[in-house]
Design brief:
The chain is of the alpha/beta class. 57% of the residues lie in helices and 7% in strands. A 5-stranded parallel sheet has the order 2-1-3-4-5, sandwiched between helices. It is rod-shaped, with a radius of gyration of 34 Å.
Length: 341
């Protein structure tokens, strides 16, 4: 249930204060009363009312001074202020506008007009605050997302520092995976999770001993079985992190194969999450076109042929078709950009 709007009534004249209170009480407002400018400032700063009804002609600190003081303090600068005055001349109102007043009411106050003005201003002020709160929440969400993604990039970079042979691999495959997923019509919301999954695709290798991960030669059967467990380690590492659950398809499933001969679960066909099917093509492309301890880099044409040959066994045919089209378009664009003008 929404809390009632708070109205601060400021007037040194008891009769005038009582008339305003009488007009507003029973309408669901929380009413605060101040007799002096100093009391008004103290109440405004402690209670942050939704509206200040401020008399102009007060001894000591008049309404103009109170208004200026409220406007010069960050905590109360946006607070709606309606000046109530017996002075109905243009100069007095201009003075009030310069002091920061939002609106004016003339004495004697008309109760119906007062209620209507208060109702409109408090609703607008609450709506403004709601928008400001929403904007703050959205900004905080963006900052949180950036912090999350920076952390994930740090994890990926830490793994690459451990294995120098794959330096730059995570960044490259992430960019290409997102491009291919977008080509296949994956929604922007899902691309966020695909990007995170691609960044963390090999995070499970943190659990692989150096003697296996950094071995320059071919792995024996036992070593290979341990290396294959990096997908399990990835699942176990990421499962407690709730916001990474939608990104887990790639780290856990990117070694599954279309024909069911992959690992760790032996999934086949469309049982394999689409994110993992997309990433599998990109991962092989990047691995084969760059030097590794166990092979020299192949040319793009040779790698394209390898991917074509593994279509329907290792790779999803629809994903391969989209990949080849994407690469052809990229090649055409590069050729056009480099052509003499």
């Amino acid at each position: 249930m929404a809390t009632p709007a708070t109205i601060l009534i400021v007037d040194d004249d008891e009769g005038s204060r009582e008339l305003v209170v009488f007009a507003l009480e029973g309408n669901g407002y929380r009413l605060l009363v101040a007799e002096t400018g100093a009391d008004a400032l103290a109440l405004a700063r402690s209670h942050l009312p939704d509206l200040v009804l401020l008399d102009v002609m007060m001894p000591g600190m008049d309404g103009y001074e109170v208004c200026r003081s409220l406007r010069h303090t960050m905590r109360t600068a946006e607070m709606p202020i309606v000046m109530i005055t017996a002075l109905d001349d243009r100069e007095s109102r201009l003075h009030g506008i310069e002091a920061g007043a939002d609106d004016f009411l003339s004495k004697p106050v008309d109760r119906i007009e007062l209620r209507a003005r208060v109702r409109t201003i408090t609703r607008l002020n609450r709506y403004r605050r709601l928008l400001e709160d929403q904007a703050r929440l959205e900004a905080a969400a963006v900052e949180l997302k950036m912090a999350y993604d920076s952390t994930l990039e740090g994890w990926a970079r830490a793994l690459e520092l451990r294995d120098h042979e794959t330096e730059g691999h995570s960044r490259r495959v992430t960019e290409m995976t997102v491009r291919l997923a977008r080509t296949l019509g994956i929604s922007e919301a899902d691309l966020v999770h695909i990007r995170r999954g691609a960044l963390l695709h090999d995070i499970g290798k943190i659990g692989i001993p150096d003697r296996i991960l950094l071995k320059p030669g071919k792995l024996d059967a036992d070593e290979w079985e341990e290396m294959k467990r990096h997908t399990i380690y990835a699942r176990d590492l990421l499962m407690p992190v709730t916001f990474l659950h939608p990104a887990m398809d790639i780290p856990y499933c990117h070694h599954e194969r279309w024909d069911g001969s992959g690992y760790p679960q032996g999934l086949s066909g469309e049982e394999i999450p689409i994110a993992a099917r997309i990433f599998a093509v990109i991962d092989v492309w990047d691995a084969v076109t760059h030097d590794r301890p166990y092979h020299r880099a192949r040319t793009p044409a040779e790698t394209m042929e390898l991917i074509r040959n593994d279509t329907g066994s290792h790779f999803d045919p629809c994903v391969v078709k989209a990949f080849l089209q994407m690469m052809e378009e990229a090649s055409d664009s590069e050729a056009l950009a480099s052509a003499p003008s």
